[in-house]
Predict the structure.
Amino acid sequence: DLYRKVFVFREDPSDAYVMLRAKLEQPLQNFTLCLRSYTDLTRPYSLFSYATKAQDNEILLFKPKPGEYRLYVGGKFVIFRVPEGHRDWEHVCASWESATGIAEFWFNGKPWPRKGLQRGYTVGAEAAILLGQEQDAFGGGFDVYNSFSGELADVYLWDTGLSPDKMRAAYQSLRLPPAILAWKSLSYEVKGDVVVKPRLRE
C-alpha cells in the first residue's frame, strides 16, 4: 500500500524505472489512466509506458516539453496543451474508448477538450508496464534523455472510462472503483535508483 507515499526518481538522466504488474485477462477496449507527478524537468520525459510485443507505444503518457502532454494509443497520439509554470504537483487522467475513438484528458481535476484517436482499435493484454522510461522495445530500448526524474504518485489504470465524478475523485484522492493497477495495492518492482518516500506535501 503506497498511500501517502511517492516514488522518487533521483537521477537525471537516469536508466531507472518501476515495473508494474497488472492482472489483464483480455485486451482493452477502454481504459482510464491517472497519475500525479512533480518535477522540474524541461526536456522530454515519459511518465507511463505500456508496451506489447506488437506495439511499443500501446499506451504512453509522454511530456515532450513544458505545457504539453501526449497520449499515445497503438502508436498514434493526440496532444493536450496545459498551463505551465506552477512548479507544483500535476495530476492527469487520460481515458480512451475504442467504440468512439474519443480521448479524454483531465488536468488537475478539470476536463480539457476531447480529441479523436484510434477508433476501433484494441489495446493488447500481454504488456510490459513501466513508470519513468519510454519503451522502444518490449520491456526495454530506453533513451535516458526521455527518462523521468522527480516524484510520481497515485498511479491507477482502469479497464473502463471513468465518470466525471470519479475523475474528480481521483484528483482529490477520494475513494475509487477497483482498478487493474491501484496505488493502494500496487504490485511493482524497482529497477535502479528509485526510492519510496513519504509524500512531503499535499
